[in-house]
Amino acid sequence: MLRVLMTPYILVELARGHYMIAGWTFGAAAFTDTLDGTIARRFGQESRVGQYLDPIADKLLLSSIYVGLMLGGAIPGWVVAIVFGRDLWILALSAIALRFTKFRELRPSVWGKASTFAQIMTAVGVMAAHAYQNPVFGQISDLLIWAVVALAGVSAADYTSRGVGFWIRSRRACTANRAGVV
Question: What pLDDT, on a 0 to 100 scale, did the predictor assign at position 67?
Answer without folding.
Answer: 97
